[in-house]
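Record filed below.
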Amino acid sequence: MPSSILDSDYYKDMFGTAEMRAVFNDHSRLQAWIVTEIALAQAQEKLDIIPAGIAETIEKSGKPENLDLAEMKAEFDKVGFPILPFVKQLNKACGAEAARWIHYGATTQDVLDTGMVLQMKAGLVQVEDNLDGIIKATAELSKKHAKTVMAGRTFQQLAAPISFGYKAAVWLDEMLRHRERIQSLKERLLVGQCAGAVGTFATLGDRGIEVQQIMMKALGLKAPDITWHTARDSWAELVSVFALMAATFAKIANEIAILMRSEVGELSEPFEVGRGASTTLPQKRNPISCEPIIAIAPKLRELVGSQLTAMIQEHERGVGQMNIEWMVIPEAFVLMSGSLKHTRFILENLWVGEATMRKNLDLGGGLLMSEAVMMGLAPKVGKAKAHHLVYAAASKAHENKTTLKEALMQEAEITAVLSASEIDTLIDPVNYLGVSEKMIDQVLKKL
């Protein structure tokens, strides 16, 4: 029975996806190792380093179903290194003649690292697909609600009007930067290696670099300029980018959860009968999809620390750092898939309470329009005096439980320079959105 929540039959789909787990399960890992060995043999055959036909033999006979996986596991438990038992099983399955040339000139870490990069490449396809879906949904929200006025809040208090489209465009711009980060990262991340024990190609001599280049081309990866056995910065960068993405999604989920509160009611997760129900409070519709998004973010931040630790290696191969990565990388991808899945579901189906947003603007008697009035008054009496006059009016509105307009109309120095209709214009939230629409358009042009 699984003991990890990521593999738990009960919880696993809350924090990840079946598709991403399939990329990093035992079968896919083994298949990545096999594909790596085939590509190595193909490259060496092409350069007449090993006899022709070895790669074909591995491809035909070295399939997972032809390997004794129980025996391989038992030997791994004994040896402590995963590739030696794997190569022994390949040798057995492919026969004595082929066994002479399998894994020729390679080392354990070459196969482990290149195999993991192949898995990461497959995982990134899913990450990018879901991120693109989220970007599309957020862009649609930005366009649709460019004029949907709502309260902007600072320090959790009503501040000044914004549009919901503006809020969504801020999210969108952040997501577009994440997409740029991933696209840029792939140039550094999708790189394999096969240079032997200390990375010098000593086992393959002058032809080593050429073998590696041909091998990586066959795998659809880049060949490095120099071996990276102890240079793990690209892998740390990947986990860091995932943590950034998860933090963005957690921020959005937290915002939606807050705006779902009964006394706010401006946004809501998509509702399905029974989803988010309480065991004791039958009336509740809880932000149930927001919850795992918020929970995943700190976990991914923790994994960044672990992966940064794996960068600190001694000599030409360190003790224990590879093992950290075996835990971190698959978990990071699975958690990222969970965050993406829930975020996409919410944003593609988000309920926007336009009427409630407009209603909430009037909470406090329109006091959130104080800045707008001050800026309308400033050209007539100066900024400092305008601030003083509006501050006094707002304070009276607070104390007397009146509206901002009523308090303004009682200030002779204000009514001397502003008519009632001018005040009405100034306190209308629609008229105080600045250049929000232009900024939304600037973000949308990046798509």
